[in-house]
Amino acid sequence: MSAATLPDLDALQRELGAAVDAAADEAALEAIRVAALGKKGSVSELLKSLGGMSPDERKTAGPAINGLRDRLNEAILARRTALKAAALAKRLETERVDVTLPVRETPAETGRVHPISQVVDELTTIFADMGFSVAEGPDIEDDFHNFTALNFPEGHPAREMHDTFYLPTREDGSRLVLRTHTSPVQVRTMLSKKPPIRVICPGRTYRSDSDQTHTPMFHQVEGLVIDKGSHLGHLKWILEEFCKAFFEVDQVKMRFRPSFFPFTEPSMEVDIQCDRSRPGEIRFGEGSDWLEILGCGMVHPNVIRNCGLDPDEYQGFAWGMGIDRIAMLKYGMPDLRAFFEADVRWLSHYGFRPLDIPTLAGGLSN
Amino acid sequence: MKFTLSWLREHLAGDYALEDVTATLNRIGFEVEGVEDKAAKLKGFSIASVLSAEKHPNADKLRVLMVDTGGGAPVQVVCGAPNARAGIKGVFSPPGTYIPGKNITLGVGTIRGVESLGMMCSEAELELSQDHDGIIELPVDAPLGVAYAEWANLSDPVIEIAVTPNRADGLGVAGIARDLAAAGLGTVVTPAVMPVAGAFPCPVSVGIAEGAPCPAFALRLVRGVKNGPSPEWLQAKLRAIGLRPINALVDITNLLTFDRNRPLHVFDAAKVAGNLVVRNATAGESLLALDGKTYALDPAMCVIADDGGVESLAGVMGGEESGCDEATTDVLVESALWEPINIAQTGRRLGLNSDARFRFERGIDPAFTLPGIELATRLILDLCGGEPSEVTLAGAIPDNARVIDFPLGLTEKLTGLVASDEEQVATLAALGFTVSGSGPVRQVTPPSWRADIEGKADLVEEVIRILGLDRVPSTPFPRDEDARKPVLTTLQLRTRKAKRALASRGMVEAVTWSFVPKAQAEMFGGGQPELALANPIAADLSDLRPSLLPGLIRSAQANADRGIGDAALFEVGQIFKGDRPQDQFIAATGLRRGTAKPDGTGRHWSGKAQAVDAFDAKADALAALAACNAPVANLQVSTDAPSWFHPGRSGTFRLGPNVIGHFGELHPGLLETLKVDGPLVGFEILLDRIPAPKAKATRVKPLLELSAFQPVERDFAFIVPRTVAAADLLKAAAGVDRKLITGVNVFDLYEGPGIDADSKSVALTVTIQPREKTLTDAEIEAITGKIVAEVAKKTGATLRG
C-alpha cells in the first residue's frame, strides 16, 4: 500500500470513535478494539503498511497512523471506564437492604451482674486502695468462731440479738450454726495470720428472721485492723473515706453513737447524713436526716486474747455493715426481699452490665 | 424502755427541753427510737363551749352549733354528734387543724348548704380512744380557749429508747437520769430511800435450797392493807408507758421496775401456805402464771414454792393463785436476786417474756435489793396503809466490788481522743465509779449497778461515751509501705471473673437462698442429715443446698410463670457437701430455658432462635472455665454426668481424675417431679477444683513464632460407629504429628440415608503448618496417610467412599 492509497484517516477516526462511543457494553467495546487494533485489525493493518512506504511517505503517514492508534486506545479506555462505572452503578442500584431493620442484641448488653456482686466489687476496690485484702470463711460455723471467741458468753442475752439457725445437735452435744455475722472471719484471720492485719470479709450471713426488712439470708462486709497502734480516730477516718468513695459524694457527715457489741469495746453505731425529703429518694452528703449504716468499735481485749494475741500489745478495730443495705441505699432499691427472688425483670433493671467493672480510675458506677 | 419527760424530771432537775434530752441520750448510747408528743400532735385543739344547737335546715341528723372558742365572735359549726347540745363544753378544732384520727387537715366546709368553720371532736378523732359515738364532753368548769392537751395533762412526751444488753442500769428512769447528769444535762435529784422500821418479825421464813440460782431473797409482810385501784397519778404514769394498771399493790411493783430497775413480787399472804422455799422445779410441776397461761416446768428452772407447791417462777413471773387482788389484806413483798443465765434460759425455754425477766437476765444492781423492798414498803404504806414486819433476808447480798487498774493514757491510745486526767476522773466519778490513787494509773471501782464493766477498755468507753464521740479526731490511716499486690485470693478472683464471663454471654445473675427443700437436696446429691437445719424458717427452706441448680430451676420456672420463658440465669455461690469448712465449695452454675441462646432469643427477622441445647451449656461452662484460667484445652469430657442430667445429652468435665463439673440437658423425669417445664440445659462447675495457677517468675509472654510458609488444610470424611466420640477422632488425628499439625476440627457431621444406621460421618479438617520449608506433595501425602491410618487404628473409622 502506498501513501496514495491511504484511506481518509480523519474519516476512519470519526467512524471508529463513533463505534466506541456507541458500544453498549464491555464485550461490544472489545469487539471494536479487536476489529481495529487486533492482529488483523484495520488500524493494525495500516501500521503494518508503514513498512512498505518510502521514508518521506512514512514521515507524514507514520505520525498520522500512530496518532490514530493512540487516540483510539484512549477512547476505548475512557469508554471502558465509563461502562464499568455504569455497570457498578446499575448493580449497586439493585443491591439494597433496609438498614433500619433491628439487629440482635449483644449478649454483653443483655447479661447482668447482681447488685450484690457489683457492690462487693465496689467496696473491695475502695478498701484495696487503702491496703486491705479480702478474707473469707465458711457459712457453717461452730459455736467457738461465731460466738464464744467473739466474747458472747453462753446464755448471755447478747446471743439473743442473733436469731440463729442451728444444724442438728451432734453426738458430743455441740451444734454448728449458720454464721449470724461475718465476724467469725475476724477470729479465723487472727488465728491464722500474724499482725499487722488489714482485711475486709464480705460474705453471706443468716438469721432466722423474715419480714418486710429482714430476710433469713443477707450479706455483710466485715473490716478488721490489728496492729500496735491503730485507734478509733483511724477507724473514723476510714469510714468517712469509704462513705465518700462509695456514695460518690464530696463530703458526707457521719454521726457516731455509743453502742454495744460483745466483741468490741468501745462500741459504736454510725449514722450517715442524708436527705429523705423527696419521696422514694435518698440523697447522701446533704440534708438533715440520719440513717444507720454500720456498727463498729475497738476489738474487745477478750477477743484478741481468745485469738492467741496479747491485748496489751495488740489493738485494733473492726466494723460490720450490711451489703444489701448499702446497695439499697446507694441505688435506691426499695425492697430487700426482691434481691433473692431472681425475677429477671428486677435483675435486668437493677443489675449491672458485665463490662461495667468498678475501678478507681474510671469511677465505681460509671 | 419507755418513760415520760415528767417522770425523768422527778430524777433529774435542770433547765432542759425535750430536744436536749433526746440529743443527749443519742450521744451517750441510749438510742432514741421514738418520741410520742401528744401535746405537739394535738396543737390546735382547744376547749370551747356550745352556745346553741339548732336543727340543720336541710338534714335531720345534723345540727348547726354556735361555738364560743374563748376569743372573738362565736363560730358556726355543723355537727352530726347525737350529744351535741347547748351548754356543754368540748374540744374544738379550727380550719387548718390536722385531725390525727382521720388523717386529714380540716378545711372550711359547706355541709348541705350551711357553712361550717371548724369541728367539735370525738375522742377517736384525737386518737385518745376508739370512741366516736359522740363529741368529747368536758366538765363545765374546763377553762375556755385553753389548749386541750395541756389541760388534760397530755403534754408529757413519752420517750422510747433502745437499751443495749450491757446496760441493765438503763432500764430504770433513775439510771437514765444518772447518765444524763454525767453528760452535763441537769442534776440528779432521785429521792433517797428511807428504811421503814418493822413492827414485828416476818412470820413467813424463806429457805434457799442448795444449788438454787438465788444469791439473796428478801421478804417482808405488810398486814392490814387496803388494796384497790391505785391513785390516778400512778395509773397515768403506767398507762403513759403502755402498762395496764391492775391494783395498787401490783402497780407499785411495776412502778419500781421502771423507776429504779428493781423488779419485785407481791404475794397475797392469805394464799401462801406455810413458809417459802426457793428451789429448782421438779419434773412434772407446772404453774398457772399471772398471764393466765400454764407453764410446764423442768428441773433447770427455779421456783418459789410454799407448802402447797409452786407459787412463782423465780425472776420471770408470779403465779396466779397467790397473786394480789382487791381482797388482799396481808401482802408479802419479795425483793430477790437471781443468776442472770438461769433466768435467760428459763424464759427462753418457756417462751415467756416479762419486764422482770428482761431485767434479771441482764443483771440488776445487787446493792439495791434491800433499798428496793424498803421503797416498796413505803409506797404500800402510803397508798394502802397497813403495818410492816421486819425484813427477812435469805442468802447474802453479794459484794461485786472489784478494782480495775486504769492507765489514763489508754483512752488516747485506743481512741485518739485527748482528755485531761481530771476530765477522765470526773467523768467516771459522775457515773458512780470510785477512782483512787494518783499518777498515770488509777484504781477504779465500778458501781454495784455496772456488772458489765470488766476491764480498762470498758472504762475507756465510759469516758469517751460521756465526753462525746465527736471529740475523737478523724485520723488519716495511710497504707503500709509494702508493694501493691492483688488483694483477692485465686478463688475470689475466679468468682469475680466467672460472673462477668457468664453475664457477657447474656446470662443474668441470680442470688438464690442457700436453703432448699429436703426432697430437692436429695435429688441433687445432698440431703445428708447434718445439713438439715434444726430450726428452718419454712419447710421449703430446710436443707443447705448441695447444688445451685435447684434454686435456678425454681427461679426459671417462676420467671416462665411471669411470662418470661426464655431466661438465662446463673449464680456463683457456695454449695455444701458436708458440714466441715473444707466441704463448702464455690460453684458457678448456669441455666438456660426456652430459646435463651447466647446470640439471641425468640423470633427475629434474621432467623428464629432454636431451643437451647446441651452445647449452649457446654459453651457457657467453657467460657466460665476459660475466664478462670482453667486449662480448657486439656479438659476431657466423659459421658457420666450425675443423675439429674439427661443420660444421653450430658457430660462431665475432667482433668485427669479430677472432676471439674458437669453440663447438659436436665433430666426430663426430674423436671416432671419438680413440676417444671423443660427442656432446660445447665452446667455446674466447681471453681475450687480448678488447678491452682503456677507461680510465674515473669509476666513476659512466650516469643511469637511466625512461620514463613503457608499452612495447608486437608479434609477427611470418616465413617465411624455412632458410639465413637468425636473427641477420640480429633485426638487421634492431632497426635500424628504434634509439631506440624496445628489444628484439627470437625466441620461436618452426618447421620442418615446413605450411611449405616449404626454409623455416622464425621468430617475433619486438619491444618498442617510447615516449619522449615514448604512441604512437597509427597510429604503431605505421607502425613495425611498417617492420619487416616491412626484414626482408623484408634477408632475403627474408615474413609467415606
From TrEMBL, chain A:
CDD domains from the UniProt entry: PheRS_alpha_core
KW Hydrolase (keyword) present: no
Keyword terms: Aminoacyl-tRNA synthetase, ATP-binding, Cytoplasm, Ligase, Magnesium, Metal-binding, Nucleotide-binding, Protein biosynthesis
The Aminoacyl-transfer RNA synthetases class-II family profile domain, residue ranges: 117-354
Record-linked Gene3D superfamilies: Bira Bifunctional Protein, Domain 2
Cofactor: Mg(2+)
Residues annotated as binding Mg(2+): 265
Cofactor binding note from Swiss-Prot or TrEMBL: Binds 2 magnesium ions per tetramer.
InterPro entries: aa-tRNA-synth_II (IPR006195), aa-tRNA-synth_II/BPL/LPL (IPR045864), Phe-tRNA-synth_IIc_asu (IPR004529), Phe-tRNA_ligase_II_N (IPR004188), Phe_tRNA_ligase_alpha1_bac (IPR022911), Phenylalanyl-tRNA_Synthase (IPR002319), tRNA-bd_arm (IPR010978)
Pfam families with a match to the protein in the record: Phe_tRNA-synt_N, tRNA-synt_2d
Catalytic activity: tRNA(Phe) + L-phenylalanine + ATP = L-phenylalanyl-tRNA(Phe) + AMP + diphosphate + H(+)
Localization: Cytoplasm
EC numbers: 6.1.1.20
Gene Ontology MF term list: phenylalanine-tRNA ligase activity
Assembly behavior: Tetramer of two alpha and two beta subunits.
Stored HAMAP family: Phe_tRNA_synth_alpha1 (MF_00281)
Family: Belongs to the class-II aminoacyl-tRNA synthetase family. Phe-tRNA synthetase alpha subunit type 1 subfamily.
Protein name: Phenylalanine--tRNA ligase alpha subunit
UniProtKB/TrEMBL annotation, chain B:
Record-annotated B5 domain positions: 399-474
Species of origin: Ancylobacter crimeensis
Domain FDX-ACB: 707-800
Record keywords, A-Z: Aminoacyl-tRNA synthetase, ATP-binding, Cytoplasm, Ligase, Magnesium, Metal-binding, Nucleotide-binding, Protein biosynthesis, RNA-binding, tRNA-binding
Binding-site residues, Mg(2+): 452, 458, 461-462
Reactions mediated catalytically: tRNA(Phe) + L-phenylalanine + ATP = L-phenylalanyl-tRNA(Phe) + AMP + diphosphate + H(+)
Family: Belongs to the phenylalanyl-tRNA synthetase beta subunit family. Type 1 subfamily.
Record protein name field: Phenylalanine--tRNA ligase beta subunit
Cofactor: Mg(2+)
Name of the gene: pheT
Residue intervals of the TRNA-binding domain: 39-149
Cofactor info, note text: Binds 2 magnesium ions per tetramer.
Domain of life per record: Bacteria
Pfam families named among the record's database cross-references: B3_4, B5, FDX-ACB, tRNA_bind, tRNA_synthFbeta
The protein's assembly and partners: Tetramer of two alpha and two beta subunits.
Compartment list: Cytoplasm
GO terms of molecular function: phenylalanine-tRNA ligase activity
UniProt entry tagged with the keyword ATP-binding: yes
Broadest EC class assigned to this enzyme: ligase
PANTHER family: PHENYLALANINE--TRNA LIGASE BETA SUBUNIT (PTHR10947:SF0), PHENYLALANYL-TRNA SYNTHETASE BETA CHAIN AND LEUCINE-RICH REPEAT-CONTAINING PROTEIN 47 (PTHR10947)
The EC number(s) this enzyme carries: 6.1.1.20
